[in-house]
């Protein structure tokens, strides 16, 4: 997506927000109504119940990088619709619709900049783009993000959000699991840290590959994180799932992640970790 | 007599007539013998025609056929002196994945694979080939062991997927799969994988991120089961046949996509009709693939595997 389109997209969303219907946001956690302005100023965290709402790449990058300054990395070109897939709709139509709705080319976008003075390359997976699903576009962007980090001698930080692999790309989406894993090995061999921030929701083949291979594993509060979907598990074992199952705090209790970090504290925490693991400051 | 799949039902009548005639053939009548031969030829022709144009969904049925050879049959026939190695050293021994040392045509190898079981008791024991984290962690342990002692690794993939359960999630199913895939990719010894039945999603790729991926002619390999795909994209699992078609799950399709390197032919009517012949052809193919790495250094073997996956897509 071109720069112009990105601008147009954000103008569109601003105008939309001014209509009375969009003045209020209903919290998915507590159900209370919050002023959109207040909600967004609070990084899309509910001021009443601390529910962490889903946010897109632009807001993430703005929150994360020093003074909101960053450079988007080019989107790698990949084969579009390699299987000529069609269910009730053509896959190409689904992609078009997702592009129009999000202003993005695919579900993973990288940017580079500094976080409290430390260089970093950051990838954001956008759940709004076909459920963040991992196909050729996501795999290629992940590899490109790692390569940029190696070139910059900086860590690679990935914010995951995905329902899993993109079924419409069949086996090729499954092959992104080993592909991204190879990229991580290269980052490791370059002596650079790989930090994963698991956001709501991260499931399926994404969890079972790059989302679980971080040198440090962080999750946002309440994020759903797992391999199998909850309905699949329920129908397989015919049992009720325990309270808080597959939530960030539950994973922390079971030793699967290092920490659960509130969105307000994320930037400082990431800077602190980079300071330990890759302390070379930006020039 | 093997159990017939739905689409093989036209064979049933021919086969029961052959069986009947054979029962009465004790008197040595030439008429009966020639009639049997005629019917058998007809039956073979029908079988050949049916199997020459199996749809992706029919292949899925063949790949899941309960009488298709399983890990233990492969090991019993093609591996000499198999020494099973158990456990992940952390929690349990998951019998959905079995592994151990052995010789394949005289070559020292580590062989690892999914075992589905083939009657009620053994299916439960092996959890229908659906591994838990401890299964993948055992596989990781065995791969690392093979790497240290220079043994090529052979994996046989046959799973509908990793087990979806509460305890599996609690013990880190996703992490175990990710680490197992990583372990495949780190090996300095050749890893040759064969999809012998069902290659189900992450549970399969965790053992199949290999230098060479072989696949039986009628095996299937996919990112999600056709039923699962259909229930999400078509909103009904009844559309599984359409999903199987759309996802390109067959060996021929996957070879075109560069995911499968070599297709191993099956005996007429599928591996379950002549398991001994099927296992022999697989053993031969695996041996050839392993030998093709002779003279390569660990770095070369690892680098070519990495390049292969970086190039996909
Ligand atoms: Zn709330």
Your description of this structure?
The complex is a heterodimer of chains A (283) and B (313). With 283 residues, chain A is an alpha/beta fold. Chain A folds into two domains: 51 residues, no CATH class; 226 residues, 2-enoyl-CoA Hydratase, Chain A, domain 1. Chain A contains ten helices and nine strands. A seven-stranded mixed sheet of chain A has the order 3-4-5-6-7-8-9, with helices on both faces. In chain A, strand 5, helix 5 and strand 6 form a beta-alpha-beta unit. Chain A is globular and about 50 Å long. The N terminus of chain A is likely disordered. Chain B is an alpha/beta fold. Chain B folds into two domains: 48 residues; 252 residues, Alpha-Beta Complex (2-enoyl-CoA Hydratase, Chain A, domain 1), CATH 3.90.226.10. In chain B, 50% of the residues lie in helices and 16% in strands. Chain B contains 14 helices and eight strands. In chain B, strands 1, 2, 3, 4, 5, 6, 7 and 8 form an eight-stranded mixed sheet that branches. In chain B, strand 5, helix 9 and strand 6 form a beta-alpha-beta unit. The interface between A and B is large, with 58 and 50 residues. Bound molecules: zinc ion (ZN). Zinc ion binds next to loops of chain A.
What's the short version?
The complex is a heterodimer of chains A (283) and B (313). Chain A is an alpha/beta fold and 283 residues long.
What key phrases describe this protein's structure?
heterodimer, A: 283 residues, alpha/beta, 2 domains, seven-stranded mixed sheet, disordered N terminus, B: 313 residues, 2-enoyl-CoA Hydratase, Chain A, domain 1, eight-stranded mixed sheet, 8 strands, binds zinc ion
Question: Secondary-structure blueprint of this entry?
Answer:
The complex is a heterodimer of chains A (283) and B (313).
Chain A: H1 3-17, E1 24-26, E2 33-35, H2 36-41, H3 57-64, E3 70-72, H4 91-102, E4 108-115, E5 118-125, H5 136-152, E6 156-162, H6 170-174, H7 176-189, E7 194-202, E8 216-219, H8 230-237, H9 248-253, E9 259-260, H10 263-277
Parallel strand pairs in A: 5-6, 6-7, 7-8, 8-9
Antiparallel strand pairs in A: 1-2, 3-4, 4-5
Chain B: H1 9-23, H2 30-52, H3 56-63, H4 71-78, E1 79-84, E2 97-104, E3 107-114, H5 120-125, H6 133-148, E4 153-159, H7 166-170, H8 173-186, E5 191-200, H9 201-208, E6 212-216, E7 220-222, H10 226-234, H11 240-247, H12 251-256, E8 262-264, H13 275-291, H14 298-311
Parallel strand pairs in B: 3-4, 4-5, 5-6, 5-7, 6-8
Antiparallel strand pairs in B: 1-2, 2-3
Helix pairs in contact in B: 1-2, 3-11, 4-13, 6-8, 8-9, 10-11
Bound molecules: zinc ion (ZN).
């Amino acid at each position: 997506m071109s720069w112009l389109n990105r601008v147009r997209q954000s103008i569109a969303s601003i105008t939309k927000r001014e209509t009375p219907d969009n003045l209020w946001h209903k919290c998915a956690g507590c159900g209370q109504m919050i002023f959109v302005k207040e909600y967004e100023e609070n990084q899309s965290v509910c001021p009443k119940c601390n529910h962490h709402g889903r946010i897109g790449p632009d807001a993430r990058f703005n929150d994360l990088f020093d003074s909101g300054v960053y450079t988007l990395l080019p989107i790698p070109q990949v084969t579009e619709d390699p299987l000529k897939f069609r269910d009730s709709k053509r896959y190409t139509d689904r992609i078009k619709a997702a592009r129009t709705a999000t202003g993005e080319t695919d579900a993973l976008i990288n940017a580079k900049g500094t976080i409290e003075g430390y260089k970093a390359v950051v990838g954001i997976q956008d759940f709004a783009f076909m459920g963040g699903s991992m196909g050729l576009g996501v795999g290629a962007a992940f590899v490109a993000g790692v390569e940029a980090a190696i070139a910059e001698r900086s860590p690679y930080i990935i914010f995951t959000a995905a329902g899993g692999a993109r079924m419409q790309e069949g086996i090729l989406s499954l092959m992104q699991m080993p592909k991204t894993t190879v990229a991580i090995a290269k980052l490791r061999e370059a002596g650079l840290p790989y930090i994963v921030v698991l956001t709501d929701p991260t499931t399926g083949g994404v969890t079972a590959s790059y989302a679980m291979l971080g040198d440090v594993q962080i999750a946002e509060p309440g994020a759903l994180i797992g391999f199998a979907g909850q309905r699949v598990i329920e129908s397989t074992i015919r049992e009720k799932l325990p309270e808080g199952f597959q939530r960030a705090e539950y994973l922390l209790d079971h030793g699967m992640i290092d920490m659960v970090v509130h969105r307000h504290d994320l930037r400082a925490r990431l800077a602190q970790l980079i300071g330990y693991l890759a302390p070379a400051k930006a020039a | 007599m093997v159990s017939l799949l739905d689409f093989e039902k036209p064979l049933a009548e021919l086969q029961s007539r052959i069986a009947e005639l054979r029962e009465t053939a004790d008197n040595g009548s030439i008429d009966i013998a020639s009639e049997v031969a005629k019917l058998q030829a007809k039956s073979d022709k029908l079988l050949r025609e049916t199997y020459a144009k199996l749809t992706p969904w029919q292949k899925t049925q063949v790949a899941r056929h309960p009488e298709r050879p399983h890990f233990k049959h492969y090991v019993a026939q093609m591996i000499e002196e198999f020494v099973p190695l158990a456990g992940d050293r952390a929690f349990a021994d998951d019998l959905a994945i079995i592994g151990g040392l052995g010789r394949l045509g005289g070559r020292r190898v580590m062989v690892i694979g999914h075992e589905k079981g083939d009657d009620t008791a053994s299916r439960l024991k092996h959890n229908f080939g659906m591994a838990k984290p401890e299964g993948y962690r055992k596989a990781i342990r065995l791969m690392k062991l093979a790497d240290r002692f220079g043994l090529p690794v052979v994996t046989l993939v046959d799973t509908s997927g990793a087990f979806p359960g509460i305890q599996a999630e609690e013990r880190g199913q996703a992490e175990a799969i990710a680490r197992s895939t990583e372990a495949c990719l780190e090996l300095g010894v050749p890893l040759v994988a064969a999809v012998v039945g069902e290659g189900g999603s992450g549970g399969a790729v965790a053992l199949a991120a290999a230098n060479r991926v072989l696949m039986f002619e009628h095996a299937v390999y996919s990112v999600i089961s056709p039923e699962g795909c259909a229930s999400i994209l078509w909103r009904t699992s009844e559309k599984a046949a359409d999903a199987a078609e759309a996802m390109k799950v067959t060996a021929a399709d996957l070879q075109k996509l560069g995911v499968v390197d070599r297709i191993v032919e099956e005996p007429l009517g599928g591996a379950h009709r002549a398991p001994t012949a099927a296992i022999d052809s697989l053993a031969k193919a695996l041996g050839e693939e392993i030998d093709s790495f002779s003279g390569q250094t660990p770095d070369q073997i690892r680098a070519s595997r990495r390049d292969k996956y970086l190039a996909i897509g």
